[in-house]
Amino acid sequence: MIFISFGQLKAYMDTKQFYDPAIGNYAEIYMQFVSSSLKYEGKENGLQGKVAVRLTVSDNDSIHFSDLYLLESPLMKDSIVEDFYDVVRFSIRPGTYKLKVELSDVLNEKSKAIQAESDLTIGDLSNGVSISNLEIAEFARRSNDNNNFCKSGFYILPRLTNYYPSELNKIPVYFEVYNSNSIPLDSQFVLKQQIINSETKEELIDFEIFSKHTKGSVVPIIRGIDISTLPSGKYDLIFTVLDRSRKEYQSQSYNFERTNLMDQNINMENLVLDPAFQQSITNDSIEFYLESLIPIAKQNEILNIISTLKSKNEEKSRKHIQAFWVKTNEINPYEAWISYKQQVQFVQKLYSNNFQDGYETDRGRVYLKYGAPTTVVQKETSPSEYPYEIWQYNKIGIFSNKRFIFYNPDLVNNTYRLLHSDMLGEIKNQGWQAALSKRNTVNGSVDNPNMYNQDHFGGNSNDLFRQY
């Protein structure tokens, strides 16, 4: 998966290979457009954007595939815009190619075309037992529609990120097994599913599954893999074709990253303190680091942290910190803790003030919860606006292009507060422009809180917020 962006327009792209006995080897190009990065025009039933797409597949000798077309977004209603997708499918011979893509926002006269290149390797899936690439889905459903999103009676919306936060507990996967009828003996073949830790190479036995399937020239497989109990880490999902004697014929894998703040009940009374873990926490910083876990803890865990803090019990606090990271990252709890500790120290240095530690501030909390922003716009001076910062994230878990705007209405103490965000679960303030310009602007009405906002030189917070 690659991310392509220039100026305002942003998109994600990925490729997969399949095989059809009627047409031979073919490739699919998946594109996800960050909808908030496009301009829209009003239609009778909503808003619609337009993207010009140019695709070229070539090698050193010639162009093997090219396409130029206009893609219209689905109609967006009630000013709610969601990312939209496109799938391009084309047959191509085995070989190594260069894929070039060029995208431009048709409705934005100021937008320049964005370009990206990627290597495209096509294997020969026609001879012997083989497996297509694993296509991961945002969701899949049965469908008899005839379009590029459909295969083998399923409509599949592709997923173009391999990150799975705690909120996602299933990996829907689609792939095809080819020429299994060439396997001798029996009328069925065996499919083995594994999940292996990418760093330790340890197999998670609980996720090993064997299943039998009827042989055929093309056998479609669709499966939802439950990862609700899979701890945080990096993994390889592997499928292997076997015969009944367990002889392996072909494998295909998918690498993904998992973050899982599981609600496991850990008996802290029986927890053995790790000396290395505990040496990283001095006696005078135990409460500080225990409380610093609140930005990334779930609601029930926050209550437990507060309860432990009130107990003023040093050993219990130390066990609580260690237990939290054992629960968060079962494989490498110490490494995960040290990494987070460094982030806590970073936000303490940047965002603390006279009465708040860094993790207690809005900027510190957002940084610890979602990581470092992709871009930051800082505006210390403006004729009418309070000092403000706009943070933009290309990706937060399953969400694309999320923004946060912080402002400092007190003008002292580095006390920037979160004013508005389009991230799910965060503060949404439709009158954020009025609040930001309140130094010399009269409030609007309930229906239009920004009605009295005046354009002025340097007052470009709205343009900056929508640009990223």
- State mean pLDDT (0 to 100 scale): 87
CATH class category of the largest domain: Mainly Beta
Query: How many H/I helical runs?
Result: 8
* Percent of residues in β-strands: 35-45%
Largest beta-sheet details:
6 strands, antiparallel
Per CATH, the architecture of the largest domain is Sandwich
Q: Can you tell me the number of structural domains?
A: 4
- What structural category arises from helix and sheet content? alpha+beta
Cα-atom Rg, whole angstroms? Answer: 26 Å
For this structure, the CATH topology of the largest domain is Immunoglobulin-like
* Oligomer class: single chain
**Per the principal axes of the C-alpha atoms, what is the gross shape?**
flat
Helix content: 10-25%
What is the element layout, followed by pairings?
Elements: E1 2-6, E2 9-20, E3 24-33, E4 41-43, E5 46-48, E6 50-58, E7 63-72, E8 84-91, E9 95-105, E10 114-122, E11 130-131, E12 135-142, E13 150-151, E14 154-158, E15 163-164, E16 170-178, E17 188-197, E18 209-214, E19 218-226, E20 233-242, E21 248-258, H1 275-279, H2 286-291, H3 299-311, H4 314-328, H5 333-351, H6 362-370, E22 375-379, E23 388-396, E24 399-407, E25 417-421, H7 432-436, H8 461-467
Parallel strand pairs: 15-21
Antiparallel strand pairs: 1-2, 2-3, 3-8, 4-5, 6-7, 6-9, 9-10, 11-16, 12-14, 12-16, 13-14, 16-19, 17-18, 17-20, 20-21, 22-23, 23-24, 24-25
Helix pairs in contact: 4-5, 5-6
